[in-house]
Amino acid sequence: QVQLSESGGGLVQPGDSMKLSCSCAPSETAFSRFTVGWFRQAPGKEREFVAAIFRNYGRAYYAESVQGRFAISRDNSKNTLHLQMNSLRPEDTAVYFCATGSRLILSSLRNDAAYDYWGQGTQVTVSS
């Protein structure tokens, strides 16, 4: 059973930066073999895709709304996923979730139903 845990959320002002992390347990999990992603859900809205990175340091994909501002990365040696968020906007306010699955392919990256495991989420609030 894969367990994911996010950290790094909080309150920031517009234009600030923030880095989220997601740790994967147990430690013997073949993390490098998993494609992993970030989703977010704002109050009253559906959960939406943010970014994903293919297994073994593969290519990254982003939602158009965060392209050029956010960067997803992974450290397979530490079973950790990161999301560097720059130039944050009030509309980035949401609960951010990391997720992974064993059968993710390019066409399913943006579909949350394709992911098997989810973290509990971390709140990001962008407000002046």
Describe how the helices and strands are arranged.
Elements: E1 3-7, E2 10-12, E3 18-25, E4 35-41, E5 48-53, E6 60-62, E7 70-75, E8 80-85, E9 94-101, E10 117-118, E11 122-126
Parallel strand pairs: 2-11
Antiparallel strand pairs: 1-3, 3-8, 4-5, 4-9, 5-6, 7-8, 9-10, 9-11
Description:
This protein is mainly β. The protein contains no helices and 11 strands. The strands form 2 sheets. Strands 2, 4, 5, 6, 9, 10 and 11 form a 7-stranded mixed β-sheet that branches. A 4-stranded antiparallel β-sheet has the order 1-3-8-7, with no helix packed on it. The radius of gyration is 14 Å and the shape is globular. The mean pLDDT is 93.
Question: What keywords describe this structure?
Answer:
128 residues, mainly beta, 7-stranded mixed sheet, 11 strands, globular
Summarize the structure.
With 128 residues, the chain is an all-beta fold.
Low-confidence stretches: none
Task: Tell me the span between the first and last alpha carbons.
Answer: 40 Å
Strand share of the residues? over 45%
Largest sheet: 7 strands, mixed
Task: Tell me, rounded to a whole number, the average pLDDT.
Answer: 93
Number of helices: 0
Helical percent range?
Answer: under 10%
String of helices and strands: EEEEEEEEEEE
Q: What class would the helix/strand composition place it in?
A: mainly beta
Overall morphology: globular
Number of strands: 11
Rounded to the nearest angstrom, the radius of gyration is 14 Å
